[in-house]
Amino acid sequence: MDYKNDNLRELLEYISPAALDYQTWLGIGMALKDSGYDVSVWDSWSALDAARYHKGECVKKWRSFTGSDHPVTAGTIVKLAIEGGYQPQKQSSVPYGAALDWDSYIGEDYVVTSAEQTLATPVQMPDVWDPAAQITKYLETIFEPDDFVGYVTECWKNSDGKYLPTAGSYTRTAGQLLAELRKYNGDFASVFGTPNPECGAWIRFNPIDGKGAKNENVTEYRYALVESDQISIEQQNGILHDLQLPIAALVYSGGKSLHAIVHIDAGDYDEYRKRVEFLYTVCDKNGLKVDRQNRNPSRLSRMPGVERKGQKQCLLETNIGFASYTEWRDYIDSITDDLPDFESMADAWEHMPDLAPPLIEGVLRQGHKMLIAGPSKAGKSYALIEMSIAIAEGRPWLGWQCAKGQVLYVNLELDRASCLHRFRDVYGALNLPPAHLGSIDIWNLRGVTEPMDKLAPKLIRRAKKGNYIAVIIDPIYKVITGDENSADQMAHFCNQFDKVCTQLGCAVIYCHHHSKGAQGGKRSMDRASGSGVFARDPDALIDMTELELTEDILKQQKNQAACSICENALKQYAPDVLADAPPDDLFSRNALLKLCCDHLPKDGYDTLLIKLQVSDRYTESMTAWRLEGTLREFPKFQPKNLWFRYPVHEEDVVGVLKDLQTDAQRTPYQRGAKRGHDTQKKQAKAEQADKSAELLNVFDLVNVNGKVTVQDIAEFLGVTDKTVRRRLEKCEGLSVSQNVVRKV
Length: 744
What we know:
By secondary structure, this protein is α+β, with helices and mostly antiparallel strands. The protein contains 24 helices and 27 strands.
């Protein structure tokens, strides 16, 4: 980092010279000289420690800094500044509209007012000067009766003629001070001593332990001091009120500033430091340049009820603005959101914005969201890989033309090798030359993924420069945040996709599984597992349901495949025989097989028979699917019927599948009669496979240090150890021995 450009003068505001030992103070000077600064910077900063500052000392020491093989550098200043509350500016990963955490950079938001915009508000001085009443109200407002209070009414003059406070008193409680004020009939001097009218008096706003008055003596981190003397008193007053700071006491210092004692309510010093830094930064952004030397919790503030150079240090107001730091923070977060303003339809009527161009023609626009839902074994991942290729190559996907552009495929489920091989296999099955492989990026996250609310900012940061028109996330069960049956939690989860769409300007496509059990009687939009938010949130929902293939259709498909294989064999070995064959024979497996038997050499015919066996098995493994859609931006499309011929889907353009029913269309009686006992066994086997896959996924998620126990899995799933053991007994791929779970 170029610390010169980072402005070490600003960083020095976070370092109190009075808090440093002599060697560290010298190190600051060495670092400034090493970084090219003038001695005046060190001298001006050192003067803030009036008790130890001696005019001319910095110049004398500066001349002795002649260089070293191991010089003290600007890093020393940065380190001390960070310890004092400085936070290096960085781009926030927190989405707009959300409350920032302590590590987030506070950008141009959080601006409520400014010195130029605010209404200058005159301060209301008390009509009657009553010092006892002033300090009494201050003590009652700021302290509990048993809090020890630190205050200073004596001062001394340094060599420059400046009055400075002594250590003061810190051994009496607020209750004792109030009792003595009553005892002495409000005689201020009898209780606190007689202040020097040239310098006034001071009081510490946080309670201490009665043993000292340093930071380590502070017992509770209740308040911070906000003070600025760079604008008029009236402007200070206006900004403090406009910001609605949680001010417990507002005191006029008798000089150029107001002292606002602001609620911080921190649990420890680290939280205090962070909250004060946020408070000061917000004040700075709103035109109230805060004196950052006041950030320490044991800081002295001006005591009300005394006079200073003919001016009264007086308590102006108590308990103004919000009641607590938390309430004020919520207010600041909400009032400085980045939500758009209202707009009039009359203004937009003649100047309509252009609609986002389609990403998938007739289905999805660029910058929108799409969910693909379906049961296990529907080939959803392959469908998404096909979509990735279609976008990269600018070709149709399942019959719909896709826009051409960069695409990011977020792989959450497959190991890297399997994922890459799948892309290559799909290119091969589509018989498509990989002309635009550079348009496909893959993010392999199996075993290292996080919930979506944590993943989204990282995805956005990495993808900012990718110019992606689509981000495909496969599958979402790996990154679900919360209970998928909870509407509010799933709304929060789906909002993460909005953030990706908005900040990257791309479409987000993701897939999810159907709920368990039969889908009969359900609309396509209601079949996805979990809350109905899944169905209603995306701009396009594509649902896949399986078609029950009849024996006649399977026989027909086997016949077509066999005829194609036989024709190819005859073209190779006996083209004249094929040319003279009757047209009807070209559509008959048996007829073509007889021609092959009669005219192919033995080795050619034996190879043909092997190919036919492989083809029959391949055909028997094919599945058929119906796509239905719920679209927000386009008219509803007619259902599409597909073959899934591993590893790709093919649209049924002939219409073989159009009359078949899906599981969702059949009545329970039809489903039971059709499938019978064998189907139930098949379903049970599939469900067990799903359960095994779930356990394997959980095993990978909790396998952090190389050892997984039954208790680890039980805690993740929210079930008992006994339940996990029962599931492991039936799980293919995992075994348990002496409470340790291993892959087999």
